[in-house]
């Protein structure tokens, strides 16, 4: 199983980024997929998850972030709008059974 994130970068407060996660080695549509983040010096924070039943969000990102998936192409996305400096972190996509990508850095700063 391989998960590869992309799309991170430096953005000003109020800006937007779209993260992508390419997944291979599993039947993508069968599983609940997650975005998790870790700010420097802090623990892991679950951000959002999605399966065929629907999507879920942490309170800290609800209304600003949108998770989606493309089952045909095994892609997971996280659209992040109205970004805040406190959203600065390394963002990972992950399965619920222990597979993680290498992460993509998001920095929100003026």
Could you explain how this protein is built, in words?
By secondary structure, this protein is mostly beta strands. The protein has no helices and ten strands. It has strands at 2-6, 9-11, 17-24, 33-38, 44-51, 54-57, 65-70, 75-80, 89-95, 104-108. The protein has a six-stranded mixed beta sheet with strand order 2-10-9-4-5-6, with no helix packed on it. Strands 1-3-8-7 form a four-stranded antiparallel beta sheet, with no helix packed on it.
Number of extended strands: 10
**Quaternary organisation of the protein chains:** single chain
Helix content: under 10%
Amino-to-carboxy terminus distance? 37 Å
Task: Describe the secondary-structure layout.
Layout: E1 2-6, E2 9-11, E3 17-24, E4 33-38, E5 44-51, E6 54-57, E7 65-70, E8 75-80, E9 89-95, E10 104-108
Parallel strand pairs: 2-10
Antiparallel strand pairs: 1-3, 3-8, 4-5, 4-9, 5-6, 7-8, 9-10
Summarize the structure.
The chain has strands at residues 2-6, 9-11, 17-24, 33-38, 44-51, 54-57, 65-70, 75-80, 89-95, 104-108.
State the main characteristics:
about 110 residues, mainly beta, globular, four-stranded antiparallel β-sheet, six-stranded mixed β-sheet
């Amino acid at each position: 199983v391989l998960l590869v994130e992309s799309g991170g970068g430096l953005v000003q407060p109020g800006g937007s980024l779209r993260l992508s996660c390419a997944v291979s080695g599993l039947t993508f549509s069968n599983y609940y997929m997650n975005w998790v983040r870790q700010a420097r010096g802090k623990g892991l924070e679950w951000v959002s998850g999605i399966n065929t039943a629907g999507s879920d969000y942490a309170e800290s990102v609800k209304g600003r972030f949108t998770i989606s998936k493309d089952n045909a192409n095994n892609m997971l996305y996280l659209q992040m709008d109205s970004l805040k400096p406190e959203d600065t972190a390394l963002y990972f996509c992950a399965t619920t059974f222990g597979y993680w990508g290498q992460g993509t850095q998001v920095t929100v700063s003026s």
